[in-house]
Amino acid sequence: MQLFSRIPDRFFSILSSQKKELYVQTLFVLRQAFKTELIIRREELVGMLIDALEEEIADADFSDEADLEPGTQENNLSAKAHLLLRKLKETGWIETEFEARSFDEHITIPDYAVAVINLLYELSEERVKEYNSYVYATYAALANAKENQDFVYQALQAAWQNTVRLIDELKSLFNNIRRYYARIPVENDVNVLLSEHFDEYKAKIVDMVYYPLKTIDSVPRFKHAIIAMLNGWLLDGEIQNRIVEQGVTRHVWENKEEGGEKMLSMISYIVDTYEGIEEMLDAIDRKHTEYINASVEHIRYLMNADQGVRGNLVQLLKHSRDPDTTGLMSRNIMLYQHQYYDEKALYAQAKRTKREMGPPKAIMETEKPVKVVDDFLSGVRKQYTNKKIDDYVQGCFGDSDSYSTQQVPMNHTEDFILFLLSTIRGREKSADYTVIFGDGNCIRNGYSLPEATFRRKQIRTQVKK
Fold it and tell me: Hey, is 208 helix, strand or coil?
């Protein structure tokens, strides 16, 4: 049967119109009426539309519609609601009939329209779809047929339908994993990747489908029992005759010859599916593992390749032995290089060796790391302004006129960076405080900080007076 021999030609036109969102919401209200009412009266449905979509209907522009009710205003809510229903009737979504001996108009929904409306509603939902235990349902249907053989046809039909749905679910699972996998290389935001991994993939794929398939509705758990029962049916002519007779009696098959062919085809499909299903599950396992590894590696790469101040600071530390780098840093942000000896520093006496003349080494031109320094300075100036540094220092002062390194908070990397920049800022004339360095360093929450005392400049002014 051709699809559009049953569905009207303009059936899908409302889904491509300018007011498609309003039409879809109207269909959802129609679905609600279908779920709650046996007889849908037109005026009651119009009231439901106005209650649910009053703002949407009022804001909708129907100026291009030429078939408004005669004598009604364009902005009348009731007129617009009636127009929506007429559009649904013209395109084949609803049908109307009048109640016997009355002028009350009733709305009926064709079966094909109900199916499409339910599909649209399911696609619009954000609720995670619960996985149905197709494997167990197949096993239960076949096992229960032993107790009541008057329903062996229904058992075979249920087993076949659940097997078809299981394969569709497995293929959808595989394609969904591939879809998430394909999005990994094009996404460079770590937060988005983490959200997709935990909020989307784990919640909608792993927890709801993949995990049940590996545990609760495990294929290996019921596979052999299903195959054994169906192979037993293939050897039992009496059961086969019952299935065929029940199918013919219910007018599913026209005659016993057709019934016998369909029955053997259904049994063979189920047996073949479960005998080869392990390959499909292995492919899903491999794709799941590939996605997990690729997701973790990409997140790790993005975190290590941070191009912010922290990333540029890492690059500077890599070039810390280069005198050009330290020279540029000293001139721009008053960075000084210092060394010290501690109890772990051991002196190893150099051994004299005989100097021998060898071939001269080629002069290698190295690229000046000016870009690294410029990127760092640009990032620091944008992210850590003087105001931000001064606010940090004032927060450390509190009600006191001085504080030391031992008193500063050191809970995050941000505290470490602001502390270092505050020591540099304290040497500037525009700063409201001074920094007096002491001897040695102190360890605060894993960070090595120089001993220093911060004092407000207004203290000195008061002493001079």
Answer: helix
Tokens of 317: 């530390």
Of the chain, the end-to-end C-alpha distance in Å amounts to 103
Three-state SS at 156: helix
**3-124, which class in CATH?**
mainly alpha
Residue 9, classed as helix, strand or coil, is coil
Tokens of 144: 């229960």
Token pair belonging to 395: 């927060």
Measured CA distances, 271 to 25, 161, 180, 246, 267 (Å): 44, 13, 32, 22, 6
Distances (CA, A) of 141 to 147, 185, 190, 237, 263: 11, 45, 47, 20, 16
- Pairwise CA distance, residues 48 & 33, whole Å: 8
- Sorted by where each begins, the domain ranges of the chain are 3-124, 134-304, 307-338+369-383, 384-464
Residues in the chain predicted with pLDDT less than 70, given as ranges, are: 1, 64-75, 126-131, 305-321, 326, 329-382, 458-465
Angle between helix axes 152-183 and 256-304 (nearest 10 degrees) is 20
What distance in Å separates the CA atoms of residue 82 and residue 141, rounded to the nearest whole number?
Answer: 48
